Structure formats: C-alpha cells, structure tokens
TrEMBL record:
This is tRNA threonylcarbamoyladenosine biosynthesis protein TsaB. InterPro entries: ATPase_NBD, Gcp-like_dom, T6A_TsaB. Belongs to the KAE1 / TsaD family. TsaB subfamily. One of its GO terms (cellular component) is cytosol. GO terms for biological process: tRNA threonylcarbamoyladenosine modification. Keywords: Cytoplasm, tRNA processing. Residues 31-232 form the Gcp-like domain. Gene3D superfamilies: 3.30.420.40. Pfam families: TsaD. It is found in: Cytoplasm.
Length: 238
C-alpha cells in the first residue's frame, strides 16, 4: 500500500518538508538557523500546492521527533500537531538519527551508519543503525546523549563492535569533535551527511504505518534524550 504522507523536520539547523504521492516525492529543504518558524509553513504550502493536494487528502503527517535542538524539535512537532489535529490525521514520529541513516544509504548505498549530532554543552547525541532487507532499519546502538570522551567505552560494551565490515559516519558531531572517529575501534567510512532531510523520513514513516505505530495528534511526543527538558502536548496542557 502506498501512503500519501507529509513529513516535517525542524530538529536541527536546517528545516525540510517532503510529500510522497504515489511514486512521486516533492521536497523542500533550507538551511534556516533560528528561522524555522518563518520558513516551514510556506514550504508546507508549497509542496501541497505543487501536488495539488489538501491536508484532508493525506494519510498521515510524519514529524522529526528528535533528538535535536529543544526549540527546533518543539517547533516541528507543534506545527505537525496543529496540521494533523485540524485535518483529523494520524501522526508518525521519526527519529532524526534514523532519517540520517536513511539519507546516508540514499547517497552512499551503505547499510551500517553511526550518527553523531553536536548537542552542545560538550555532549553529542549518538546512535547506530543497520539497514534491513525490507528497507527499514534496526537500532544497532540505542540513541543516547553523552560526552564525546565516553563514546568509545560505550561502544565497546555494545553489539556494534561485533558487526563485521565498515560503519559509515554521519552528522555534525564528527566535525565538532574531529578526534572522535579516530578513537573508535571500528573500520570507519566518512559521508557528507550532516543534517536530516524530510524525504528520508517518508520510507521510515511508511514502515511505521505498516506496523500500526501511528498516533492521534494529541498523543504525539518528542524525544529529547536530555532529562532536563519538558514538553506539553497540544491538548491537556494543564
């Protein structure tokens, strides 16, 4: 079954929108630090107009659930919730890191990806993914936030080091901490992927819908990884 899905992501410095209609994918992506609220709604209107669709004709709205900037994740989920709530559409949260793994596969045709995103405050968001035959992804290393100096120790206690072959790295964390990759006891291949793009959320959202993981708008929630932040959903704000 081919779903018609609108995907929205504002979790990091760029913001992006993608729409899948049958075999066609319409995308918009812009670097917009601190301008997400100005850019994202016109981008959504633009892709819907190009497809000649209304929100009511969609099957679901996918949103970048994080991890990422607290403000960026909050903007993305808030806009996605507002659209889905108004059009009575289900929502699907997609991991920022899983979307970057899918983008790395799209660009490099690699199936093992380690993601490190600069989380600032001398920390990184980190996760590992391995692609399955059906195009979905398995979590090889659970998403976490940690100081870069602790990454190698964490990896040594994980299943990542037992997988033969190269791992491809993606994300801004490797640039923010240049020595990070060289400290790992793994065969590493670089990629040019730094930021998530919504078009890569579409296939992940499709698999999530097939698994029955869609939720009502009021139940959509972010993943920040840091414990010192909170989010109040669209309904039930009290």
């Amino acid at each position: 079954m081919a779903y018609t899905i609108l995907a929205i992501d504002t979790a990091v410095e760029n913001c992006s929108v993608a729409l899948t209609v049958g075999n066609d994918v319409i995308t918009r992506c812009k670097m917009a630090p601190r301008e997400h609220t100005l850019k994202i709604l016109p981008m959504i209107d633009n892709v819907l107009a190009e497809a000649n669709l209304t929100l009511g004709q969609l099957d679901a709205v996918a949103y970048g659930r994080g991890p990422g900037s607290f403000t960026g994740v909050r903007i993305g989920i808030g806009i996605a919730q507002g659209l889905a709530f108004g059009a009575d559409l289900p929502m699907v949260g997609v991991s920022t890191m899983a979307a970057m793994a899918q983008q790395t596969y799209r660009r490099k045709q690699v199936t093992r990806v380690l993601i490190a995103i600069d989380a600032h405050m001398n920390e990184i968001y980190f996760g590992g993914y391995q692609r399955k035959e059906n195009g979905d992804w398995d979590v090889a290393f659970e998403e976490t936030v940690l100081p870069p100096k602790d990454l190698n120790k964490k990896l040594l206690t994980s299943n990542v080091v037992t997988v033969n072959g190269e791992w491809t790295i993606a994300g801004t964390g490797w640039l923010a901490y240049p020595a990070l990759a060289s400290q790992l006891h793994l065969a590493i291949n670089n990629s040019s992927v730094l930021y998530p793009e919504s078009e890569d959320m579409l296939i992940l959202a499709h698999h999530a819908l097939l698994r029955g993981e869609a939720v009502d708008a009021e139940n959509a929630s972010p993943v920040y990884l840091r414990d010192n932040v909170a989010w109040k959903k669209l309904s039930g704000r009290a």
